Amino acid sequence: MNPISKKIKALRSFGIKRLWYYGTYTLKVKSGFFQKQSIPKNSKNDKKNVVFSPLPNGRKDEILPFLLADSKSILESAGEIITVGYRPYSGNIIRSLDLVPPHKDLFWTRIPPRENLDIKDIWEPARFCWVTALCRAYVLTGDRIYPEFFYRQVQTFIESNPPYYGENWVSAQEAAIRMISVTFAAGILQPSLPDKNSTFPDLPAFITLHATRIMQTRSYAKAQNNNHRLSEAAGLMTAACVLPKSPDASKWFSTGWKDFQNALNSQILPDGAYIQYSVNYHRLMLQLVLWVDSLLKTQKIAWPANLIRKIRRSVLWLAKHTDEFSGQACNTGHNDGSLLFALGGNYNDFRPTLQTAAIVFLGKPLFPPGPWDEMRIWLGCYNRAGVDPDSQFESTFYSQNVQRISAGNQWGILHTAGFKDRPAHADQLHVSLWKGGKCMALDAGTYRYTAAPPWNNRLKSAFVHNCLTIDCQEPMIDAGKFLWLDWDQARILDQTEFRKIAEHSGYKRLGLKHSRILEKTRQDWLAVDKVLPIRVPNSPRAPNTLFHGNLSEKKHLFRLHWLLPEQKFEVLKENNHWCFLSKDVKIIFSANTIQLNLIIIRAGQQIFPTGSSAENSDPFRDICGWYSPTYGIHIPALSLILTAETAAPFVICSRWKFLPPGL
Question: What digits encode the pLDDT tens for the residues 130-148?
Answer without folding.
Answer: 999 999 999 999 999 999 9
